[in-house]
Amino acid sequence: MNWKRRQFLFLGSLGSVSAGFLGWKFLQQNNQTAELPTPDLALASIPSKKELLLRFVSVADTGTGDRGQYAVAKAMTAYHQQNPYDLVILAGDNIYNNGEIEKIKAVFERPYKDLLKQGVKFQACLGNHDIRTANGDPQVRYAGFNMQGRRYYTFNSGSVQFFALDTNGNADWKNQLLWLEKELSNSKAAWKVVFGHHPIYASGVYGSNPNFIKTFTPLFKKYGVQLYINGHEHHYERTRTINGTTYLICGAGAGNRPVGKNEWTEYSTSNLSFATYEVYADKIELQGIGTDYRVFDQGIIKFKSA
What we know:
306 residues; alpha/beta; Purple Acid Phosphatase, chain A, domain 2; 7-stranded mixed sheet; 6-stranded mixed sheet; disordered N terminus
């Protein structure tokens, strides 16, 4: 059978997660002939030639507590059953509409209860909606967001060092930028991933941020940041590598808005979705997955040191 694109599909309905999945389909690039895998093999991930160092996912603009959020959360749980992970990057607007911490059960603890029960850790940053109540301080202190009581912070997971930013207009920009450069310069991690709520490059309603391009891209290039993750734009968008950095928007975690393309866009869609990342010594393999469990985008970030 000839297939035009290499991908695989989650099969089965959301309601049958507990019963397992019928399997995965593997599609091959370049019209190569491939046999459909047997049911046993179909339940496994595609084997890699390199040892997997870390698997994590990202999602943003989630905190509505409505049907869209639950649909994405169920797809994240389904992916976890086939490809276990213990880290979610939660890139802001965690509680709509005004960051009210009293809504935390409805917009976080219940939608992600199956992941939380299995020990999956969410690492959050603040979005513009989050700071509308007490400037986001209740979320900074909320244990489930693992923000270390700080509006910007860093942590390591395996060979990856993550740097969480407060990208809001009222952020402590002077001290935060000094902190970021110091942490990046001191980092010995092979992989450096920065995340914040607002986009640097984007093709959606708000578009790219010229001030952020001037501020962040020189730092990312100087210190070898390979990936920047954000939300705010309610779509999925992956850029080509720009001066060594890939920019990925995963803001369709509960609702969506139209998105276009730019010359630096590798893939964009307004579909409700989340992103997955598999980290190896020489590359990061990333995917976009929709609420139909389908992998609609695949990309590779090749390792390049500073």
